[in-house]
Amino acid sequence: xxxxxxxxxxxxxxxxxxxxxxRWGEVSGKHIQLKVGDIVDFDFLAGVFAEFKPESVxxxxxxxxxxxxxxxxxxxxxxxxxxxxxxxxxxxxIKVGGLAGVMAGTGKGIAV
Length: 112
Fold this sequence. Notes:
Blueprint: E1 2-5, H1 17-28, E2 33-36, H2 42-52, H3 73-96, E3 104-106, E4 109-111
């Protein structure tokens, strides 16, 4: 199994992704290979896809847009850049990786 954490903070009791991956191994007996990077960095993401060769992808890696993006214009632009470019990169990494079918969901939007 592979988990990717893309530059965000943990929502799980303040623990980071490394802790959660290690804890998952303890309770499940299964290993998650964790890659920490930014999905806005296409080279990083494409490299992970090339290395791991996933059969399927579930993408929930969005930065929540409200209320952070409503603080000011720069935070709105930052949020949209992360969400839109990150999702485009995931879709193209899937395409380059040769997956036959795609369903990507981020928040309320779904692209099939």
